[in-house]
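Build the 3D complex.
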Amino acid sequence: MKPSNTSKWIKSSIISILGSVITIILLLRLILPSSLSLTASIFKPYVPNFKNVPGVEFYDLRNYQGNKDGWQRGDKILFCVPLRDAAEHLPRFFNHLNTMTYPHNLIDLSFLVSDSSDDTMGVLLSNLQNAQSQKDKSKRFGNIEIFEKDFGQIIGQSFSDRHGFAAQGPRRKLMARARNWLGSVAIKPYHSWVYWRDVDVETIPETIMEDLMHHDKDVIVPNVWRPLPDWLGNIQPYDLNSWKESEGGAQLAESLDEDAVIVEGYPEYATWRPHLAYMRDPNGDPEEEMELDGIGGVSILSKAKVFRTGSHFPAFSFQKHAETEAFGKLSRAMNYNVVGLPHYVIWHIYEPSTEDLKHMAWMAEEEKRKVEETRIKEFYDKIWISGFDDVRDEWETEKSDILLNIDLTSASEGKVEVDWSDDDDKMNFAHAALADSGQGSLNDKTKNEKVNDANTNNNAGQAHKAAGLEVAPDFDPNL
Amino acid sequence: MVSLSLIGYKIKKNPIITLLLPFIVLVSVYFVVFRTDDSILGIGSLPLGNHKWAHEMEHTWYFPFTSRFKMPRYSYKTQHNWLFNDRVEDIIPEGHIAHYDLNKLRSTPDAAVDKERVLILTPLQSFDQRYWINILQLTYPRELIELGFIIPRTKTGEEALKQLEIAIKNVQSDKKNQRFAKVTILKQDSQSFDKLQEKERHALNVQKERRSAMALARNELLFSTIGPHTSWVLWLDADIIETPMNLIQDMTAHDKAVLAANVFQRYYDEEKKEDNVRPYDFNNWQESDTSRELASSMQPDEIILEGYAEIATYRPLMAYFHDKNQPITEEMMLDGVGGGCTLVKAEVHRDGAMFPSFPFYHLIETEGFAKMAKRLNYEVYGLPNYLVYHKEEFN
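Done.
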């Protein structure tokens, strides 16, 4: 054979050998998709096999670090919800759950029911049964765990009880304990993400998980606002626990004693921190991020490794903070990034505070009063029109006829004499006389008016009685 | 002032200004109000003339973001590397509704009688057969014991994993009443706590890094394994090769939130030509005035470590309080603990006490954990006369 032929032959044989090797590998991979032992032994470190050994589990934590496209890679989310007297909020909450677009089978739900006086547990169970018995199996959720633990309640649950300044420190520490009991017991090695969510959220995008997850941050929170009745200005930033540390805050922290807890949003602790809530621009880009130090707990998505490696909701004063705010600080201390989305908003429900309730009661009263007043006014107008003739137009026409024969200029013919002498006594006397007469006439006037008033009041009262209306004694028709 | 008014006057008299000024004004008004392509005022693409606030465009106040911006469209196709897939099928329990009442959870002095579950946690750098034999010899009922191991991603870790696999398979495939309630083995994502060799392991400069990595491993192990039934957590190092057989009963009987046994080491005394014991773990200590002063003068990211001449703390160390003539039940208050053999009530961990991987009051890992438990109002104790033995080290 010629040398050129041999080289050709070698070339083609190499190609064919390569091709067959590749096809064999591909075929093997296709034929044995489940037995990973071959590829595993080549590309992967040793994996023990405990398939048939009871009570033994092995997890390689590398597989559960959290991907930014977790919904495509089967990342399991642990969905943690602390509950207390939340029966009324649960139906709304489950509506949100059901419309979520993240694959439901990848969501493990964990609830902590504590110190509840209403039927939170019953409502929760019936809602869960409904969710898990849906015809569409893809709508059912993964593993569900309910934990019960009472911590003893030091503070009432009304809005003002919870949000008063003095109650904040101990309350936050107690809530932190509750969160930790739930988080520590619920998280399993195979969770890649942990999502903390309050039940009382009113409006939230269906894609909340994907929206937060694709940022690929260790800890991330959306902005939280709440709707308000229009007499309070329609909307309001709600969650003031998401903030960036400021110099004022750092100074304040230094001045406080070890167990003190700074709570944001109270005039007692002026920190001058930039709050995530106030950074919202309604026209802004929802993808924009903002570094945070403290965060709020309404909706937190974090990689499971953050909790697994020890970050939690400190139930003690950690750098002068507790609970979720301290969770932000603690995660920062452990070198995780903590981020908020200023222009991506979820809406918390509006619960009126005691003051709001008072104001609302007053408004209702006012409403009633106004209705009453218009009724009375209408009635009055009617009386007025029918009771009196308006003769002003007639007077205008008759006036000229009546005054026709009176010479108005003749009055000026009489001379008016004025004594301009500088006699002080005289002057004083004149003044005194003037004052006397003035007062006298004034008194007369007021007397007359009083009589008139009494008359009109009487008349009005009689008129109302006639109309079958009740009138408050201090009712003033001129208002 | 005079010159200014003069200039003003001259400008006013200038006919060009009277011509140009209205023109300039018209142009700038056009640019600000009616130009659409890019706004001078930076209010986006809408011309100012028909500018609308976001809520007017959305017809509501309550919107998550403006429709001007679109969130990315997400694809829900499953993704995995089908050729080099390194993901192993997990044994993940089926979906169901489980209900646990944590109010019934107790940690009492009569742990064994009350059937309280104990979770033994061990960061496993290397597998020592004597450690395993010692575990098997514990008299606490095995159906109440759960084991948890975390293994670093290293060669030695892989070796340890293979040995552990064999050992566990032997026990768990044995008679039912001889099995442990549950065994969880985790493999760390990083090589972390094992990457430093035995020799350099005690050098001061690498200590902080090593202890920090160790703290992360301990936390990962703890929070992955602590379950709804766990009443006690026993931290037992892989190097502890000898403990009393009634270790768990003895230590739970003290009913303390955190309780550390005294870790000693057996060695051959060359001078006296006999076997002897010596203190090993110096992380069990009480705070001293010197160490407090030291801490207050330190930078926030510095840590105090025990057993180094560079940092003389003069802390009373539990290791030196050992007196074999005293009863083994003697207790002493501690401020820092080691991880050699420490029993913790599960509620301490559940409340959030963990092993700080960063300087926490200038303390780190197990010592930081003791501090955190104290911040949560738990008391920390040690048993100076209750000895467990660390394996010997050959340098």
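Chain B has two domains: 2-58, 110-390.
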